[in-house]
Specification:
Blueprint (H helix, E strand, L loop, with lengths): L6 E8 L2 H13 L5 E14 L2 E15 L3 H11 L7 E5 L5 H11 L1
Antiparallel strand pairs: 1-3, 1-4, 2-3
Length: 108
């Protein structure tokens, strides 16, 4: 499929499993994600306000389309517990065609 680059994997880090589930359910229900996978037990080290923070986190791996990114980011920001949520979008440059067809069917 020649338009694989239109699809995105979005990574969102969050502080709790309950919050990860809440955001994931909203994104799928609102058709902003075809699928959200929650990766558990991630340890993150980052600087916040000149302090080094060590936090156990959860990563939501969202499968979506580039046309959904603005709405997705808005929903995440409204429902996230962090002042500045981590929302990272990566082009899905390659994948198997049946998966891309499924993504397109679910999102467009």
């Amino acid at each position: 499929m020649d338009n694989a680059i239109e699809f995105r994997i979005v990574y969102i880090s969050i502080d709790s499993y309950d919050n990860a589930c809440k955001i994931s359910q909203i994104l799928v229900k609102e058709n902003l994600a075809a699928c959200c996978s929650i990766i558990q037990n991630v340890t993150s080290f980052f600087k916040w306000e000149n302090e080094i923070v060590n936090r156990n986190e959860f990563i939501i791996m969202v499968k979506t389309h580039f046309s959904k990114l603005d709405s997705l980011s808005k929903i995440v920001s409204e429902n996230h517990t962090d002042e500045v949520p981590e929302i990272i979008s990566v082009n899905l440059a390659e994948s198997i065609e049946p998966y891309l067809i499924w993504l397109k069917k679910e999102l467009i």
